[in-house]
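#lab-general

N.A. 3:47 PM
ok so I finally got the sequence cleaned up, no stray characters, all 318 residues accounted for. can someone with queue access submit it? mine expired

B.Y. 3:52 PM
send it over

N.A. 3:53 PM
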Amino acid sequence: MRKNSLIIVFLLFVFFQQNFENKAFAQYNPTGIIWVLPYRPDALPVNGNRTGNSGVNLAFEDFHVIEYKFLDSLYINPYNQKLPIYQIRLQEDYPSSEYDFIYLLHICYQSFFINIALPYYHPYVSNGELISTDNGEIHLFFYDIDFQQSLVPTSNTRSNNKHMNKILQKYDIKSYTYDPFVLDGDTVWRTISILCRYQDALPLYYDLLTLHYLYDKIDVTGFYNFNEIIFPCGQYTETTDYIEPSISIFPNPAQDEITISGVEPESVTLYDIMGKIVVSKFDPETNKMDISQLPSGFYVIKITANDGKFYTGKIVKE
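B.Y. 4:20 PM
back already:
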């Protein structure tokens, strides 16, 4: 059977886009948690609850953000991309403001985040009624030729595959559904959707990764693009107060030390992906920072210049 992967991805995008429009943000129990995909370096976490941009931080303060940290690299829509997800948590007394906060980030800070989502939120409705209020959904994607028939549901919460059922029985599964997509009489792909409590969604996702040989793709949450809406930004604007790249940090990737040029730093701070400060000692005479004791990985650097401006960027330690 001939398969055109581009056509499949496009059809999947259309399917989810159509299902999302006019259905998202129905009444539900807010969690106070938002997932984002940062785009600009200054949109990354600093100090565990703020970004490296003062304009974005103004919104974070007004919407009572108490946590902003790296969560994990997860497979998300369109199924074949594993991207770093960062979690924003609002103060417990203000979870219901998450809708307004999501809209604000999308409209007034468009260049900072690739996309935004409510984690595990299942936005689809049936017969005009909300299916669930606090459930998360995971999608498994199969090309027809690789599909194992044992995965077809035997009940609304189980399959006939013993490995799958061994995992499912550990969680509060609301539904386990199977949906083949047929085009011109030919099954192009198949999807299995597993709905569970949102507290179970991420652990279930990790368990399902151990069964990667059973499916082609997995999706833990649907990040979505919002339709344009009117939202007066007022004081919330795309503030660009970091130094544009006349500055250079080299080498990058680095092993033992990095050198900064193009600016006179007042301070230099290095953060890990959790937003924790790992290095703050900087030699102003040589413009170098020692990173030899750091484990290999990804880091965020914040440089405050003598004129008060600052720059944030990404560093890879080999």
